[in-house]
Specification:
The chain has about 140 residues and is an alpha+beta fold. The protein contains one helix and eight strands. The chain folds into two domains: about 35 residues; about 110 residues, Sandwich (Immunoglobulin-like).
């Protein structure tokens, strides 16, 4: 009887240790590919292998095909409502708004900015989910 109890306890400890090791390895893999916070970046061209900009910058002279990207800190665990806004800092005017439904499992979103007719200056981008601003970043049109 004691031997059966010892085998059962040893088996439970083995399963717990295996779960612990798998959890650590799974988190290491995620931390290598996902940002720690919501991150807004800007650019024109995307690297197909990692979906990040190959020409990321915060100052731009060309307005055509300008894009913004929001990367989530991990794959989104629940569905929610998101809003991405572009604001002209000097006037305070919102020049572009994107409303989106963020589905479970999503890790980011790309936005094509309609910047062709925007005046020179600094623009602030904000990203919010369910009314809470989670990220801000600025870019400059020269």
């Amino acid at each position: 009887m004691k031997k059966k109890i010892l085998v059962a306890v040893a088996f439970i400890f083995f399963l717990l240790a295996l779960w612990f090791v798998i959890s650590i390895l799974n988190n290491l893999d995620k931390s290598a590919t996902m940002p720690d916070t919501y991150t807004i970046t800007f650019g024109y061209n995307i690297n197909d292998s990692n979906l990040s900009f190959i020409d990321s910058a915060e100052e731009f002279t060309t307005r055509e095909n300008l894009k913004a990207q929001i990367s989530f800190p991990s794959v989104h665990l629940k569905s929610s409502k998101g809003v991405f806004k572009v604001i002209n800092v000097s006037s305070g005017k919102v020049v572009q708004t994107f409303n989106m439904n963020i589905n479970k499992g999503v890790s980011g979103q790309m936005f094509n900015l309609d910047a062709i007719d925007w005046p020179l200056g600094t623009y602030e981008c904000t990203f919010e989910i369910d009314g809470k601003i989670l990220s801000k970043n600025n870019f400059v049109l020269k």
